[in-house]
Amino acid sequence: QAPTFATTTGSLFEYDFEDESMQDWTGGGLRSDSASGIDYARGSYSVRIRANSGTASILTSPSFPVTGYSTLNVSFWFIGRGMNNGESFELAYSKDGSQQWTVLEEWVRNGNVNFVNKNWYNPSGLAIPVDGSSSIVIRFECKGSFRNDRVYIDDITVEGQL
User: Fold this and answer.
1) Contact by Cβ (8 Å): 140, 91
2) Which residues, other chains included, contact 98 with Cβ-Cβ below 8 Å and sequence gap of 6+?
3) Cα maximum dimension of the chain
4) Which of these, 66, 112, 55, lies nearest to 86 by C-alpha position?
5) Which of 23, 99, 144, 155 is positioned for an S-S bond with 51, CB 3.0–4.6 A?
6) b or e along 151-160 (b: 16 or more beta carbons within 10 Å of the residue's beta carbon)?
7) Angle formed at CA 138 by CA 153 and CA 22, multiple of 5 degrees
8) Does residue 54 sit in helix, strand or coil?
9) Residue 156: enclosing H or E segment and its boundaries?
10) Residue 59, strand partner residues
11) 4 near 155, Cβ under 8 Å?
């Protein structure tokens, strides 16, 4: 399913991973469902990233067209599973076709941006400066130390500010 669009402050891309595809995102582990409801924020599916798993450690967006915008604001839901103290995941962006990445935020279990396993969190308003770029790609990367270190990502929203 293609992203949806709105005109509140510019383009609004929403990814809930509820259909049968990854909605043009690449990498990541499984599109996860769970009868218990713990591994998705809303609906029935999320995407799992896990440490030491090659491409399954990183979830990368399609390229967002950003000409005419000054800032992108990113919001999403996440839950950690099996992450040990000091392990983390990060949100980064690229303005050059995924050659160079800038870390926007890092979430460390019991660290500078605290989270604990088995609790859902909803970071919002994470601002990416557009600075004249024509497109931006974002990615989530799990930085745990074992394959059992997992983060589930759900309901990603990317809003363009004019």
Assistant:
1) yes
2) 60, 137, 139
3) 44
4) 112
5) 144
6) bbbbbbbbbb
7) 50
8) helix
9) strand 150-161
10) 27, 140
11) no
- Both tokens of 9, joined, read 């402050």
Supply the pLDDT for residue 90. 94
Give dist(CA 12, CA 28) in Å, integer.
Answer: 22
At 11-36, the pLDDT tens digits run 568 887 777 667 788 877 655 544 34
Residue 91 identity (one-letter amino acid): L
21 exposure class (CB count in 10 Å sphere: 0-12, 13-18, 19+): exposed
What are the backbone angles phi and psi of residue 56, rounded to the nearest 5°? -75, -10
Within 10 angstroms of residue 122's Cβ, the number of other Cβ atoms is 11
Nearest Cα neighbor of 15 from 160, 153, 162 is 153
> How far is 146 from 154, CA to CA, in rounded Å?
22
> How far apart are alpha carbons 99 and 116 in whole angstroms?
32
Helix, coil or strand: residue 57? helix
CB 106 within 8 A of CB 113: yes
**Cβ(115)–Cβ(89) under 8 Å?**
no
Mean pLDDT of 4-16: 59
